[in-house]
Write a structure and sequence with these properties.
With about 280 residues, this protein is of the alpha/beta class. It contains ten helices and twelve strands. The strands form four sheets. Strands 1-2-3-4 form a four-stranded mixed β-sheet. It is globular, with a radius of gyration of 20 Å.
Length: about 280
């Protein structure tokens, strides 16, 4: 099942529910709220983007923020689930500390093959083992939000081996975690996980340089793994309302677009050195 990563809208009687995953959808959400309010409907609006900027919709919605019912995640992707919420990290580029807060283990969660936990490896061993045991009937478990390479233990690897064809994702967001990320990759490969089932997110445009971002992307590629580039998006203020408008210090808008186009088209451009890519 593919993701619907845009606005999700549904209606129950005289009530409408709107789930907004990203802040750049807030201007369109505001118009949608206005149309429904003018039609005399009661408007509920929530999702990560709304939790980041609830004031943006204050005059056009009746109920703002928090969890929508029924669970909106399953409307974005019926195969997705959370077993924990929040995270132990406080990464400045990440919205999770602001929208979800401290890590907490969920008692009641719907088993599904796409696991969207922000930091599953930070959970207790008891919770992690329960998650693995519950997911065993599924094939192709995707740890969609990534696994924290800094926390990966031998126990985690041993239990993950019990799953059928899991998709393991890591994140190389800053040069300081290079050793941990590469070590995690080597350890799961040594344990028998297929290279084609590994992926690595690479953040760029946040307190880095084009040279730094290129080094990290090419380091992942050199290990035989396709880097999944993520352009930094501000998590507050006017700049977050337009996708890909922010230009990090040391970058130009042209270079950020060129970098993004090259690394997002590796199915066609993998044999062409970045230096030779004209964009």
């Amino acid at each position: 099942m593919s993701w619907s990563k845009s606005i999700i809208y549904w209606r129950e009687g005289r009530e409408v529910f709107i789930s907004v995953p990203f802040t750049w959808y807030l201007p369109a959400t505001k118009k949608l709220c206005q149309w429904n309010k003018e039609a005399g409907l009661y408007v509920h609006v929530g999702g990560p983007a709304v939790d980041l900027m609830p004031q943006y919709l204050a005059d056009v919605a009746d109920d703002i923020g928090g969890e929508l019912y029924p669970l909106p995640l399953t409307r974005h992707n019926p195969d997705a689930t959370f077993t924990t919420r929040g995270c132990i990290r406080r990464c400045e580029f990440c919205a999770v500390p602001k929208t979800e807060g401290e890590l907490r283990e969920l008692r009641d969660w719907i088993p599904a093959p796409v696991v969207c936990d922000n930091n599953l490896l930070a959970a207790s061993r008891k919770h992690f083992d329960h998650v693995v045991d519950t997911l065993k009937p599924f094939k192709g478990i995707d740890f969609n939000q990534g696994l924290d390479a800094r926390l990966l233990s031998s126990h985690h690897i041993e239990r993950l081996q019990e799953l059928r064809l899991p998709k393991l994702r890591f994140a190389f967001d800053h040069i300081s975690v290079e050793g941990k990320v590469m070590d995690a990759i080597e350890r799961v490969l040594a344990a028998g996980f297929a290279l084609r089932r590994l992926s690595c997110y690479v953040l760029f445009g946040f307190r880095d340089t084009p040279e730094d971002a290129l080094y990290r992307a090419e380091a992942v590629k050199a290990r035989g793994i396709k880097p999944f580039l993520q352009r930094y998006q501000p998590i507050g203020g006017q700049e977050c309302l337009t996708k890909d408008c922010y230009v990090g210090p040391g970058w130009t808008d042209k270079e950020m677009h060129r970098f993004q186009r090259y690394w997002c088209r590796q199915n066609w451009l993998s044999k062409i050195p970045y230096a030779d890519f004209t964009g």
